[in-house]
């Protein structure tokens, strides 16, 4: 099953970074891609803080990440980095938990001064988790992202998010083709073989 998982790292119920995620989710859905959402703030805080991966909340969330081909992460910038909530979740992922997945990071911040927080803070952690394919990501300042679901996003941000979604969907469609390839190829090889043997039967042998 091919799907993307979206991870919201904000502790706030009305969240700007989650708003970016909602936009990306609806664009992915429009591109025909299944999306499964992990809202870290909804997971058991006790399980997260104790890194109790036997807790149902974490087991389920970790299984969602493990099975995804693409992982979209959104976080607020907190103290010049990403949120502690997101770090608590990333800390319970297996060491190679993002290997072989396309990862797209997004952040919102109060000030453009921390525009590079994705690059210097979050991306090294994603790499440490085995991610080899990380999109450039999008950083938006608060003024560009209204919290209200029905208010429109800043046009430049919407365009950059849309470009990320295009990259994500292209990757996922290619992965799906590759995933199905052995089965298709086996069928193709079988029919090519039987076509060859049908021809071979009609063809005179060298010995004859
Ligand atoms: C505890 C805390 C720390 C913050 N630190 C920063 C910061 O260092 N740099 C910055 O640009 N914004 C900072 N902000 C502002 C948030 O990043 C910004 O409002 C963001 O859009 C909030 O995202 P959210 O609504 O998804 O939680 C901070 C906000 C809080 C509550």
From TrEMBL:
Keyword Oxidoreductase in annotation: yes
GO biological process: alkanesulfonate catabolic process
KW Oxidoreductase (keyword) present: yes
Stretches of the chain forming a coiled coil according to its record: none
Highest taxon of source: Bacteria
Domain spans labelled NADPH-dependent FMN reductase-like: 5-144
Annotated region (Disordered), positions in chain: 189-208
Alphabetical keyword list: Flavoprotein, FMN, Oxidoreductase
One GO MF term attached to the UniProt entry: FMN reductase [NAD(P)H] activity
One Pfam family named in its UniProt record: FMN_red
Family, per entry: Belongs to the SsuE family.
NCBIfam families in the record: FMN_reduc_SsuE
PANTHER family: FMN REDUCTASE (NADPH)
The name this protein goes by in its record: FMN reductase (NADPH)
Taxonomic lineage of the native organism: Bacteria, Pseudomonadati, Pseudomonadota, Betaproteobacteria, Burkholderiales
């Amino acid at each position: 099953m091919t799907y993307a998982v979206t991870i919201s790292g904000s502790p706030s119920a009305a969240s700007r970074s989650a708003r970016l995620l909602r936009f990306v989710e609806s664009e992915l859905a429009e591109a025909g891609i299944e999306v499964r959402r992990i809202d870290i703030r909804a997971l058991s805080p006790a399980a997260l803080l104790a890194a109790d991966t036997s807790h149902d909340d974490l087991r389920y969330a970790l299984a969602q990440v493990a099975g995804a081909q693409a992982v979209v992460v959104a976080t607020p910038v907190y103290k010049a980095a990403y949120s502690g909530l997101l770090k608590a979740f990333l800390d319970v992922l297996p060491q190679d938990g993002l290997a072989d997945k396309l990862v797209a990071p997004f952040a919102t911040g109060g000030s453009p001064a921390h525009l590079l927080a994705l690059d210097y803070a979050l991306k090294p952690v994603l790499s440490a988790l085995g991610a080899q394919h990380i999109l450039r990501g999008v950083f938006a300042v608060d003024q560009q992202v209204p919290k209200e679901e029905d208010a429109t996003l800043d046009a430049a941000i919407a365009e950059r998010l849309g470009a990320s979604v295009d990259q994500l969907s292209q990757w996922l469609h290619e992965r799906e083709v590759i995933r199905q390839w052995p089965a298709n190829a086996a069928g193709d090889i079988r029919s090519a073989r039987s076509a060859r043997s049908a021809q071979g039967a009609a063809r005179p042998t060298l010995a004859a």
